[in-house]
Amino acid sequence: MTALYDVAAIGNAIVDVIAQCDDAFLAREGLVKGSMALIDPARASSLYDAMSAGIEASGGSAANTAAGVASFGGKVAFIGKVADDQLGHVFRHDMTAIGCVFTTPSLAEGPATAQSLINVTPDAQRTMSTYLGACVELTPDDVDPAIIEAAQVAYLEGYLFDPPEARRAFAKAAALSHGAGRKISMTLSDSFMVDRHRSALLGFIETQCDIVFANESEVCSLFETTDFAAAVQALADRCEIAAVTRSEKGSVVAASGQLHEISAYPVEKVVDTTGAGDQYAAGFLYGLTQGRPLPVCGQLGSLAAAEVIDHYGPRPQVNLRELAAKYGL
């Protein structure tokens, strides 16, 4: 069956609020620099009031990846839950405006659309406080077989591994994808998620995942080691392709007994690291679905990550297809 989509992403549908701050602000608010913490509606309101003026943009890790794939010219779909409220309408508009198919029904009653309050310090580190809201209401019923079976690769956001219903949605997506002869990919998302669900994640990776994305801290946490090379090998032993980012050190891609080292693209000034891993996955998956060699997939990922960290916001501000052509990719 011919694929209608290159990538179908499943993840949290979130509207980001991104603002600049200093380390003193983080200390006053009791925020751990560089972390991602879940907050309740009351905390979201108080923190929003304390933050400096910022920008609002539709985000969510897997949704950002879908946006990146679309910018490369790929065909994408997204599955995620928003409420039938103003932010939900904004998110849906933003996704469809970039050419992404987003047909998941809105939540008519219950929590509001999710928001992530992101404070960025001068060293470009982002500290995220996230109210998940409607995101956690995603269920297996929201996983549309027509979308998953028609996508070359389904991409699962690790942040959604927490809610039991969402985890069952992942299992359904994996069964549908593999049943149609497609691939399942997953990002580990954050070390705190790995720490919380290490055993279950390892089981899911070993039995369901073909492609796994992680950063250095996540992969080392997954295997409880400080030996990066050993952690990468352990991950590669459990899936078809392991792609692991290392910030300015670039990334490594391990597959079929081979290790490909990918250099990071130079950035004049790192402004905001939000979305770097998401865009790396976008470039890599776009290359993979177009039949490009793994080193080129990694280069496309590095290029997309470099673009997104030199401005505020988690999504590309230039056409990534044109940018790739400029670099001969």
Write the layout of secondary structure elements.
Blueprint lengths: L4 E6 L3 E7 L2 H6 L7 E3 L2 H10 L4 E5 L1 H12 L3 E4 L6 H12 L16 E7 L5 E6 L13 H4 L2 E7 L6 H16 L3 E5 L3 H18 L2 E5 H7 L5 H9 L4 E5 L5 E5 L2 E5 L13 H14 L4 H15 L11 H7 L3
Parallel strand pairs: 1-5, 1-8, 2-6, 3-7, 8-9, 9-10, 10-11
Antiparallel strand pairs: 2-4, 6-7, 11-12, 12-13
Helix pairs in contact: 3-10, 7-8, 8-9, 10-11
Tell me briefly what this model is.
The chain is α/β, with parallel strands linked by helices and 329 residues long.
Give your account of this protein's structure:
It is a single chain. Helix 3 (61-72) packs across helix 10 (276-289), helix 7 (191-208) packs across helix 8 and helix 8 packs across helix 9. The protein has one domain: Ribokinase (UDP-N-acetylmuramoyl-L-alanine:D-glutamate ligase, 3-Layer(aba) Sandwich). The two termini are 28 Å apart. The chain has helices spanning 23-28, 41-50, 61-72, 86-97, 145-148, 164-179, 191-208, 216-222, 228-236, 276-289, 294-308, 320-326; strands at residues 5-10, 14-20, 36-38, 55-59, 76-79, 114-120, 126-131, 151-157, 183-187, 211-215, 241-245, 251-255, 258-262. With 329 residues, it is of the alpha/beta class. It has an 8-stranded mixed β-sheet, sandwiched between helices. 52% of the residues are buried. The longest helix has 18 residues, at 191-208.
CATH architecture tag: 3-Layer(aba) Sandwich
Main sheet record: 8 strands, mixed
Low-confidence stretches: none
* Total domain modules: 1
Mean pLDDT metric: 94
What is the SS-derived class?
A: alpha/beta
CATH class reads Alpha Beta
Order of helices and strands: EEHEHEHEHEEHEHEHEHHEEEHHH
N/C terminus separation: 28 Å
Q: Beta-strand level of the residues, as a percent range?
A: 15-25%
